[in-house]
Input
Amino acid sequence: MSKKTASASSRRITPAGRRAVIRRETRETRIQLTLNLDGTGQSEISTGVGFFDHMLTHIARHGLFDLAVKAEGDLHVDDHHTVEDVGICLGEAVAQAVGDKKGIRRYGFFMLPMEESLAQVAVDLSGRAAIAYRARYRGAKIGTFDVQLIEEFLRAVALNARMNLHVQVPYGTNNHHVAEAIFKAFGKALRQACEFDPRETAVPSTKGVL
Output
């Protein structure tokens, strides 16, 4: 969709919402991703990586984004290319769907408990890419899923959405709980950052552009 959807002259959301459709095809992956920032939390996810599908569903549900992902990757090698490339596509979709950023909150923060674990996620849709990731796991895997890929996914999202993304897990002992808390908190924080501020009519920056 056009980046003018959420412009200053018309901050109204179109009937279809602020949407983006991203297609990516390489020798390693083939991905189609559709994102509606103004959705209801519906998702249709199929990447071939079960745990990753589960985590993407949390982003959609807790961000109230409508998200569809169809990915085919070289899973006979490992999950890395699929997870990273979906992150690239999601980041590109956020950047496209949010438009020129006039009237949005820009910043989002959420602290989310998941059983014994706590995740803190902060987002700034600054137009500049940066990530700080501080999370520890007990063991390298969640089932067959490599926990290192969580950081790789989030880095790909942050770089391609051109956002600042800070993730910290001060405590937590169960790998699944730690990961789930991160993805849920990310959905919540990104939702806040993308939302329209009823008092803001311009780009939320002293520079006048993000």
